[in-house]
Amino acid sequence: MAHPRLQELTQQLHSDNVRDRILALVALRSLPTSDAFPLIKPMLYDGYLPVRSMAIRSLVNHPSAESVSLLVKLLEDSSYEIRAGAAGALGDLGDHQAVQPLTRAFLEDTEWLVRFSAAVSLGNLKDPRAYEVLVNALKHPEVIVQQAAIAALGEIKAIDAIDTLLNFVQSEDWLVRQCLAEALGNLPSPKSISALKYLAKDDHPQVAATAATILGRMHGS
Fold first, then answer.
1. Residue-level pLDDT at 3
2. Cys bridge to 80: 19, 99, 102, 111, which one at CB 3.0-4.6 A?
């Protein structure tokens, strides 16, 4: 039996009012996939970018092989905002089949936002196959992409990357140093503990506090 709101939401999705379409897509997140998915799918190609972006986010609530396939196709979209949104959603879906297309998106896309989203998602997937591309991402000129790569290397437990990561201990950007402290917390080793002790004395209070907290957690206190 179809959900009682299905007819109402179907009408909303055909409204000329963008806000109506967006609100309908939000509501579809909580409906059964069998009802929601066929309505979300065409909205991925709506004429308005905010509607398309909301459709991508709503798709995350209805994971399936087809959801992954649709998002992978959107990695080739002409809009970099849509490509970035699709890359981020693939990480949230948690399907490891997304590793290869996300890797390709990072290596081939020219927009830093897409590369950032791809790096974050590769970390979310926690798949060691992402190691090479994430180490490569540390060289990206955009600091925010470097941050994403540092965090992701921590997420995939890339112990072999510690020496490379330690190059960021004296980064001029305190957010990079804080991100490094968080990543090192996932990579327990004598080198990472030594680096965390150094960061616990950082001039920036948030870096120092983060490193101290992680050290305490690593020592079980």
1. 65
2. 111
pLDDT in tens, 50-65: 999 999 999 999 999 9
Q: Do the Cβ atoms of 184 and 154 come closer than 8 Å?
A: yes
Q: Work out the number of other CB atoms within 10 angstroms of the CB of residue 4.
A: 8
Residues contacting residue 17 through CB under 8 Å, at least 6 positions apart: none
Q: How many residues does the chain have?
A: 221
Residue spans per domain, the chain: 157-221
Closest by CA to 82, choosing from 45, 116, 119, 137, is: 45
Helix (H), strand (E) counts: the chain = 14, 0
C-alpha span between 38 and 62 (Å, rounded): 11
Closest CA to 40 of 69, 29, 86, 7: 29
